[in-house]
Amino acid sequence: MHRGIVVPLDRRNVDTDAIFPKQYGRSTAKSGYGPVLFDNWRYLDPGDLDSDHARRRPDPGFVLNDPALRGATVLLAEENFGCGSSREHAVWALRDYGFRAVVAPSFGDIFRQNCALNGVAPIVLAPREVRALFDLAQLGPLEVLIDVHEGRLAAGPHAFAFQLTPRQRLLLTQDVDWIGATLAQRDRIAAFEAERLARQPWLARMFPGR
């Protein structure tokens, strides 16, 4: 269960280069990217790896710089969010800023996979439901309640259902990585292997000791 304030980013086709600009991709670190999230939109002056971001000039017109939304943990976006390259840095930047969920009508496929792997819930709602949330956010800071187990997002008088795969839920609710999520299915894997061996016993001769 997660309760958080929404940042409404009303833009379509936001690609990973907009989320995490390429000039920061030379870093080999896996964290510390929160200050450069949406860098080209967030600041009035350009930045690079050597910049002191605390001294840069924020763009007061960009939603992430709204003082009323400071500490927000849910990003509301439009269709095809996270399209473009497969860089995992984009999700790292969202996570490091503090976002724990992104809500949109659709996502780039690889970006959506990277979200669950890094503790950010990729929540798909119907376009009309996303628009209803944008309308609510225009009235003032919007708080939502997200239940990953039940697949439910509540906001004011509205409640919306969403779907996550069992693996996504496991990654988001337990401290496991992709390998751990696979190992959690070891009983199903063993059952499949036993059933396959019963149907194709000649495999035992090809793979002795399995």
Automatic annotation (TrEMBL):
It comes from the Bacteria. GO terms for cellular component: 3-isopropylmalate dehydratase complex. It catalyses: (2R,3S)-3-isopropylmalate = (2S)-2-isopropylmalate. CDD domains: IPMI_Swivel (cd01577). InterPro entries: 3-IsopropMal_deHydase_ssu, Aconitase/3IPM_dehydase_swvl, AconitaseA/IPMdHydase_ssu_swvl, IPMI_Swivel, LeuD. Keywords: Amino-acid biosynthesis, Branched-chain amino acid biosynthesis, Leucine biosynthesis, Lyase. Residues 3-126 form the Aconitase A/isopropylmalate dehydratase small subunit swivel domain. HAMAP family: LeuD_type1. Belongs to the LeuD family. LeuD type 1 subfamily. This is 3-isopropylmalate dehydratase small subunit. It comes from Ramlibacter ginsenosidimutans. The gene is leuD.
